[in-house]
Amino acid sequence: MNFDHIFYRETSDLVFCVADLQLNNQKLQEEVRKLKQAVENMEDTNQKLIEENEELKAQAKMGQQLLQKEKMLKEEVEEMKLSLTSSEESRAQASAQRKQM
């Protein structure tokens, strides 16, 4: 086996290899550039989603607070209705007692 042939290619073969490697290197650099751009875009999108998520959490919290307030107000209205009904019954009884006197 001729080891010189293995280690020392002809100049034209080496030039072809170098040109091929340079082309592959350019392609890989372009791919890296595109991937970096994709990562940047994804990071931007992720940041926007994080901000949106925080806004939605705040809206949900506000909605819960409003629901609790609505529930309390409904309970107060029911208590006022009961109190009004009781007052009207007391007034009617007092009026009836006055008429009997």
Which descriptors would you attach to this protein?
mainly alpha
Please provide a written account of the structure.
- Keywords: Coiled coil.
- Residues 10-101 form the KASH5-like coiled-coil domain.
- This protein is an all-alpha fold.
- 94% of the residues lie in helices and 0% in strands.
- The chain is rod-shaped.
Largest beta-sheet details = none
Low-confidence stretches: none
- General form: rod-shaped
Binned strand content: under 5%
Report the strand count: 0
The tally of helices reads 2
Summarize the helices and strands and which ones pair or pack.
Blueprint: H1 3-7, H2 11-100
Can I get a quick summary?
By secondary structure, the chain is mainly α. It is built from 2 helices and no strands.
